[in-house]
Write a structure and sequence with these properties.
The chain is an alpha/beta fold and about 80 residues long. The chain is built from two helices and three strands, in the order βαβαβ. Strand 2, helix 2 and strand 3 form a beta-alpha-beta unit.
């Protein structure tokens, strides 16, 4: 995708962090590689979520040529279902 000039520019300083919606594990790994946050539903276990969160943090500390955005977002947000009767 070619570079685009987005107008108006965000007022927030620093620039708001980037997030990607993930419906597969591979997308979460891509988010870690790119240094962006991962938003996902509960198709992974809490233990796997912890491991993927650690991977995000690990990649956040590395200088990577594939990193995008102005700031690293090393967060993972998972929506778990809860049924109450």
């Amino acid at each position: 995708m070619p570079v685009r000039n987005v107008v108006p520019k965000p007022v927030q300083k620093p620039h708001p962090p980037l997030w990607v919606a993930c419906s597969r594990r591979e997308t979460i790994h891509l988010a870690a590689k790119l240094g962006i946050g991962a938003l996902t539903f509960a198709f992974i276990s809490p233990e796997e979520a912890k491991m993927l969160g650690q991977r995000l943090l690990h990649h956040a500390g590395k200088k990577s040529a594939s990193r995008i955005g102005y700031a690293v977002n090393a967060n993972i947000a998972i929506v778990y279902r809860l049924h109450v009767r």
